[in-house]
Each structure stands twice: as C-alpha cells, then as structure tokens.
Please model this.
Amino acid sequence: MDKAHLLRDAFASGRLLIGGHVFLNDPSIAEAMAMFGYKALWIDGEHGTFDKEKILAHIVAANGAGAAAIVRVVGNDPYAIKPVLEMGPDGLIVPMVCSAEEAKRMVDACTYPPSGSRGFGPRRANRYGSLTAAEYLEKADRSIVKIAQIEHIKAVENIKDILDVEGLDAVVIGPYDLSGSVGRLGQLTHPDLIALYDRIVAACKAKGKPCGVSIGPSDQDYMRAWIQRGVDFIFCGDDLAFMAMGAKQTIGFIETCPRRSGKKELS
Model:
C-alpha cells in the first residue's frame, strides 16, 4: 500500500528495479528480504502455498520494511483478483496472458467503473476505512501496477496488441513456461528462446512499456544477459533458492574440509 510509486518512479527514471520472490508462508521472510535490499517482492499466489490470510501478512510485512508488494494471482479471473486487490498490494501479476483480450480482462478486473468492472469493497486498500470513498477512488487506479506475464509463444505472437491495451502498466517475461511452449522446456539459453526474449523486449521498447523478467539466482551469466538486454525490472532470487544455495555451499565446504582424527594412535 502506497509503494506503487517505487515501481512507477523506477520505470520513469530508467533505473533498474530489483525484486525477489517469496514462496514460503512465514511473513518474516518477506520482511527480511526487503531489509536485505529488495525494492519489490513477488508474493507468489500461483505456485506458493498461501491462503488469503498469508498473502495479506506478506503484503503488510513487505510494505512495513519498505518494499513494494506485488502479488501473482492464481489466474486471470475476477474472483481470484478481487480479494487480493482489497488487501492493498502495490502491484498485481496475472500469469499466462496470451492475447489482447486476456489483457483487457485483467485490466477490467483491476479497475473500478466506469472504466472497469471491479467490485467495491476495499479493506486494507483504503486504510481500513480511514479514507473516504472519494479520497480512495481518486488514487485507487494508480496505486496498483498491473503487470501481465508473458510466458507462452501465443503471447509473443500477440505482443504488440497486448502492449496496446489501455491500463496495462508493464509485462514480465516467464522464461520457463515460455521455453515449454516451444518444446524446449528448461533450455533457457537456446537460440530460439533468446530470439523470443529479444522480440518481446524490442516490442516493449518500441511501445514505451516497461518490461521485466522473473529468473533464478544461480547463473550470473544468465542474469547479466538479461540486464544487458535492457529490461526495466528483474525479479531474481527467492527464499527457497537462497536456502538451497546456502545449505549446499555450507555442507559442501564441510565435507571437503580436512580434519584431524579424534582417535589416539597406538604406540
């Protein structure tokens, strides 16, 4: 709540915005990642195990530590989108947007009448009623950054039409599902995939629409390639990945470290 400006200001300035992902339930994870320096946190309602209460707790924790809270909902459905919007996130990601019609449906669900069809029932979004309806509605649309996830070849084929949808603020590329949609699941650096990445980013730059990517933290060359490609924001790293990396590094060091035997030698 009230952190959408962190995203919009970064987009306007051309400064790379760095975000991270949260999959585990404990909201202190979101708080810690924000304190470590992430400016935005992707709270994953699609692949995470969150219920509504946990999503709200993560949003509050991220905002309290100074980061924008962005929720990826489970799908492009008003019934999935509406309750999350009432929690006052700073952004919303809708997965698998493949056409202009689907992008319009997403924006419509996020926008109050007369421009959209969002039902009125804000809770945390209007500071639990401390704002009047007029005060809240005056800034409601700008307080939510609406992001479509581009993760299928159909979306790439329709990218120019998707970017033309009024009210869509940005797109984010999902390389894994995109690779699967062209029969190369997990081959993220294959030339066919690189061509698709470049096509999406070029279309976004031509339209003046911010473009980001969601990736893991394990391959620095892959991260560098995305940054050099010119994305406007990058979600890189997550709680589970950092736990795995830290555990493997620590255990690997211990297992290879020489040690003295505790047994006394017989004379």
